[in-house]
Amino acid sequence: MTDSSVTVFSNVQNKLGESPLWHPLLETLFWVDIEKNLLLSKCLTKPDSLTQVEMQDTVSALAWLDKAHLIIGTSTGIYKYHIASGVRQTLTFLENTQSTRRSNDGRADPWGGFWLSTMDTNARSGEGKIYRFYQNSLNCVVQGLTIPNGLCFDKARSRAYYCDSKASCIFTLNVNPDSGEPILPAQVFYQFKNTQVDPDGCVIDALGNLWLAVWDMGCVMCLSPNGEVLNTLPLAATKPTSVAFGGNNAQWLFVTSADDSNVKTNQSLQGNVFKISGIKNGQLEPPVII
Questions:
Q1: Alpha helices in the chain (DSSP H)
Q2: How far is residue 210 CA from its own chain's centroid?
Q3: CB 86: neighbour CB atoms within 10 A?
Q4: 282 vs 279, higher pLDDT
């Protein structure tokens, strides 16, 4: 990573940018602004192609299904979303009768499933959960969290990862190598000593390293499969929220961020989407299978 460089990919100032997703069939980065109920996208081959679509509910997590569709996780459920028309099909409702709940982080797993976390809108302790939607069935796989984040997967080591941002902790969960179903209780993978910073969105590279956006620390960290800090890359935004590999060879790492009105310098860069070049071992997100 000695040749890495950080540039601005989109200068739209998101209130709470989240869930960057590179769609390999469209050469397009999608992401959301949770606070504004927006789905945003920008095509790599069309620099002026930024689109913003207002959604009917709070969208917080994305995956891709095929060339025409995304999978979206919202405050009411998980949906198949037609990109061109905006028409969506319900795959499963999710805590949709509870007005004090919303979805948070989510990601496709390598077995064709889609994981989505939920939380109390006021971040009440212990109310956070993680669900897995797989083969048209929805199961709660983790409970008792506060701000569940960082869902990502290492198929080679049969691992799922997640964070509880409130606890400043990253956990690992052993899963069935054939189905991706959790088989053992979670264990602590990395505990931040500074509890004033929050681990947020994560992704795993081809070597099993975990790349992490660290909220309030203004950086992306890279941790080895053993939890050793390999690298820390500073950003101009103080509140990075999530990360995703992208590009034809997964050679970039995209980073979303949130606005931060407390920052006096680089105010215009808060909430931007950044692109880190020089990634050596990135890998693209798998599709969801339904």
A1: none
A2: 13
A3: 12
A4: 282
Between CA 159 and CA 176 the distance in angstroms is 9
Whole-structure pTM value = 0.96
Nearest partner of 51 among 65, 64, 33, judged by Cα = 33
Instruction: Give the integer Cα–Cα distance in Å for 28 and 69.
Output: 13
Q: Which two tokens stand for residue 8?
A: 């601005």
Beta bridge partners of 129: 118
Do the bridges between strand 77-82 and strand 88-93 make them parallel or antiparallel, or are there none, so unpaired? Answer: antiparallel
d(CA 92, CA 86): 18
Strands, E assignment, 178-272:
187-191, 198-204, 210-215, 219-223, 229-234, 240-246, 252-257
**With contact defined as beta carbons under 8 Å apart, do 257 and 240 qualify?**
yes
45, with CB counted inside 10 A (0-12, 13-18, 19+), is: exposed
Q: Encode pLDDT of 206-230 as tens digits.
A: 999 999 999 999 999 999 999 999 9
* pLDDT at residue 206 in the model: 97
CA quadruple 148, 59, 78, 255: dihedral sign: negative
Residue 275: strand pairing partners: 7, 254
Dist. CA 18–CA 20, nearest whole Å: 6
